[in-house]
Write a structure and sequence with these properties.
This is Integration host factor subunit beta. By secondary structure, this protein is an alpha+beta fold. 34% of the residues lie in helices and 24% in strands. The chain folds into 2 domains: 39 residues; 52 residues, IHF-like DNA-binding proteins (HU Protein, Chain A, Irregular).
Length: 112
């Protein structure tokens, strides 16, 4: 789902809000998450997951074409760790009330 698809879906599900208001809300949420991570802090959304920043130390890498050693500077990279509820939902975990059961693949047969 793209950002614009998210905004369109939220606007459709909330007809009492104008499309421009929904767009402003989504933009504000993303900007706050981004600025918090840029400050090196963590963002936790209960039931969804946590965004954090991991530091990568400087290292010596290799140019894949020439094999020449290349110095790679240290950097910060965003990291997302999904919450338990999100993992269970994606993996077909415990069914939610009123949700249809998830069909699972049969176990692989083993040779006797």
């Amino acid at each position: 789902m793209t950002r614009s698809e998210l905004i369109t879906q939220l606007a459709a599900e909330n007809p009492h809000l104008r499309h421009s208001d929904v767009e402003a809300i989504v933009t504000t949420i993303f900007e706050e998450i981004t600025s918090t991570l840029a400050d090196g802090r963590r963002v936790e959304l209960r039931g969804f997951g946590a965004f954090s920043v991991k530091r990568r130390d400087p290292r010596t890498g290799r140019n894949p074409r020439t094999g020449e050693a290349v110095d790679v500077s240290g950097k910060a990279v965003p990291f997302f760790k999904p919450g338990k509820e999100l993992r269970e939902t994606v993996n077909g975990g415990p069914p939610q009330a009123g949700a249809p059961p998830v069909a699972k693949k049969p176990a692989a047969k083993t040779k006797a």
